[in-house]
Write a structure and sequence with these properties.
Structural class: alpha/beta
Shape: elongated
Order of helices and strands: HEHEHEHHEEHEHEHHEEEEHEHEHEHH
Number of strands: 14
Strand order of the largest sheet: 8-7-6-12-13-14
Helix content: 25-40%
Bound molecules: adenosine-5'-diphosphate, magnesium ion
């Protein structure tokens, strides 16, 4: 399962969306009297035991939600886990400690996978958020089970994202924002032959604006990618893609929650100014560009949405997308959080639990965690 939930200062679960996402599969297995051993990573402990990244609080929350005892051995492999797994009764639940406390997890190590596999008879992967990584719990372990398959969440993710990737109702619009332009450039490139409308916002747009000679002052951008961004813009034009880039932005002289801000046309951003959100004209342009779309995929916030003053563009785009009759799919941790915060989750057709995984899937890349579930041909 993907139980990689955000934890607060005191180790409490701040948002249990991922935990709840795992429940349908868990409940379905328990209803059929399976003894279920759940496992997940949490954060980046890099192969060492980091007490702050223990899954204990997650197990406690899980026990609360299920109103059942959750067994919790202190290590995900070894004697205690093995002994407990053998003594489990039908319909019991055990949660293993953070898989990444062992180096073998991220190294996809055969011996670590072997020790995990010893615990169970059947393997179910419901961790879509980890499916793009070749890690032991999703890759090496799967092949050690003759009986293996996808959980309900993974199945739904694949069905929804396959529809966007392979058979979207056209026009297809893709809205991309956020900061990880290096990660997202390959997706943009691969989309050009399939997408009708491409909207770029957030920090990622700055690199594309720079490729058009619009320098955007001190705004966050990746100088090393300007040439590639420029190539992509050329290809988009050749492919006849309707491209929407910010026309106006919210600018500040220092990034701070209470900074004084103003709206500037992108060509008039001062050399010391920093763009932190898209402006009202850009929102209007996005609304009219998306009006005719029949399928919309959105990833990445339009600004520094963590600061309420600069969250307007993101919540406006969330509202615009939620209002469309098009089939709407949202991917990415931050975009999903923004949609939930705006109370618009019920109006989207699908909110992916995978950030990187949903992008790599749409790009057409093989996801190791999904590949490993396939039975030998
Ligand atoms: P997602 O998780 O949805 O895939 P990313 O992780 O790529 O999105 O990007 C999210 C981050 O991008 C947020 O932390 C947000 O503050 C940042 N961001 C968006 N626009 C800007 C901007 N104009 N300047 C700096 N950071 C930005
Ligand atoms: Mg993110």
């Amino acid at each position: 399962m993907d139980l990689n939930v955000p934890l607060g200062e005191g180790g409490q679960v701040m948002d249990d969306t991922r935990l709840r996402g795992a429940l349908p599969t868990l409940r379905s297995l328990l209803a059929r009297r399976a003894a279920v051993i759940a496992c997940s990573h949490l954060g980046r402990p890099k192969g060492k035991v980091v007490p702050e990244l223990s899954l204990v609080p997650v197990g406690e929350r899980l026990a609360e939600i299920l109103d059942e005892e959750v067994l919790f051995p202190e290590d995900c492999i070894g004697d205690a886990a093995r002994r407990l797994s053998r003594s489990m009764g039908d319909g019991q639940v055990m949660l293993l400690e953070n898989l990444r406390f062992h180096e073998g997890e991220e190294a996809n190590a055969p011996d670590f996978a072997e020790q995990l596999a010893e615990l169970a008879d059947v393997y179910v992967n419901d961790a879509f958020g980890a499916a793009h990584r070749a890690h032991a719990s999703v890759s090496a372990v799967a092949k050690r089970f003759a009986e293996r398959g996808a959980g309900l969440l993974v199945e739904r993710e694949i069905r929804q994202l396959e529809k966007v990737r392979d058979s979207p109702e056209r026009p297809l619009a893709v809205v991309l924002g956020g900061a990880k332009v290096r990660d997202k450039l390959p997706l943009v490139r691969s989309l050009l032959s399939r997408v009708d409308i491409l909207v770029l916002g957030g920090a990622m747009a700055n690199t594309f604006l720079a490729a058009r000679g619009i320098t955007m002052g001190r705004s966050l951008k990746d100088e090393t990618l300007i040439k590639r961004a420029s190539e992509v813009l050329g290809l988009a034009e050749d492919a006849g893609v309707t491209l929407v880039l910010p026309e106006d932005v919210v600018v500040v002289s220092e990034v701070a929650p209470n900074a004084t801000w103003s709206v500037a046309r992108v060509r008039e951003v001062g050399s010391h100014s920093i763009a932190v959100d898209i402006g009202p004209q850009t929102c209007a342009a996005i609304e009219s560009a998306l009006a005719e779309a029949r399928t919309i995929f959105w990833n990445g916030p339009m600004g520094i949405y963590e600061m309420p003053a600069f969250a307007k563009g993101t919540s406006e785009v969330a509202r615009i997308i939620a209002n469309q009759s098009a089939h709407t799919v949202v991917g990415g941790g931050d975009s999903a959080a923004a949609v939930r915060r705006a109370g618009l989750a019920p109006f989207m057709d699908h909110i992916s639990t995978g950030g990187g995984a949903s992008l790599e899937f749409l790009e057409g890349r093989v996801l190791p965690g999904i590949e490993a579930l396939k039975l030998a041909d």
